[in-house]
Amino acid sequence: MDRTAADVQARLATTQGFGELVNALRGMAAARSERARARIAGADAYSRTVAAAIGQALALLPESDAPAPSAADHRPGPSTGEALWLVFGAEQGFNGGYTERVLDALPTGTPAVRTVLLGEQAQHIAHVRGLKIEAHAPLVAHADAVIPTSERLRSLLLATLAKRPAASVELLFGEMGAGNHFELRRQRLLPLDLATLRAAPEQAPRVHQKPAELLDLLAGEYVSARLARATLHSHACENLARLSAMAAAHENITKMSSTLQDELRRLRQEAITAEVVELAAGLRSLRRQSDAAAKP
């Protein structure tokens, strides 16, 4: 059925209204991404500083006396041969399939992968996919909430491991790179690789407690630092993906609006032409009637 000018006008108004919404989401995503970028350097430095402190603490102990930290909240538990994956998805929608990309990066095989899923939107998509998850939690809507969120995630991780220990804990998250690019990363969180962290400090640090106790405290801080870093990078990547999706949507809306405006002009021109033709036909009819009346 042919559309009328009124129909096209209504659709154009709807499209333009949707364009305003996309522009708002685009601006919000850009602001959040930049805010997260500004904090990533600090999060990375924080993680490196704690790692260096662990290396110094390890140097205070003979290598043979430096076991993995013994506190229950710093190790995955007795080996079961299974890995527990901490997966950082998206907290909010309109992200161009970011969560789908993260979930597709999960290892596959038998038995099913043990998963702690983070992000509200990620939880909904996992439910649609029928993905079995052991626990879930929201992430952050803005970068300022990263530190308390990392502590909340550590508590969730500890509770999950207390119910069912794992051989290791693996992280899956988006990591920001140079420019407007990011990559999905798989990194081991637990057990800590103390052999890699061990370093020979130029000068022995001054400590006021037993090196083993200090190491245990630093290990917990390091886990929190790694979780904070992954949360912040994931938040930045989510908003960068959203920004890209909204840019594509804006381009499509612009093309659609242009097409509808062209169609509206055509329909209006056709309507004007039809009126002119009808008016000309009426004038001819009047002339014939007048000529007929003027004949004797």
From TrEMBL:
Domain of life: Bacteria
KW Zinc-finger (keyword) present: no
Localization, UniProt: Membrane
Keywords, in A-Z order: ATP synthesis, CF(1), Hydrogen ion transport, Ion transport, Membrane, Transport
Signal peptide: none
Broad class of where this protein is predominantly found: membrane
Membrane topology: Peripheral membrane protein
GO molecular function: proton-transporting ATP synthase activity, rotational mechanism
Pfam families: ATP-synt
Gene3D superfamilies with a match to the protein in the record: 3.40.1380.10, ATP synthase, gamma subunit, helix hairpin domain
One GO CC term, this protein: proton-transporting ATP synthase complex
Protein family according to the UniProt entry: Belongs to the ATPase gamma chain family.
Free-text function comment from the UniProt entry: Produces ATP from ADP in the presence of a proton gradient across the membrane. The gamma chain is believed to be important in regulating ATPase activity and the flow of protons through the CF(0) complex.
Protein name: F0F1 ATP synthase subunit gamma
Organism of derivation: Simplicispira hankyongi
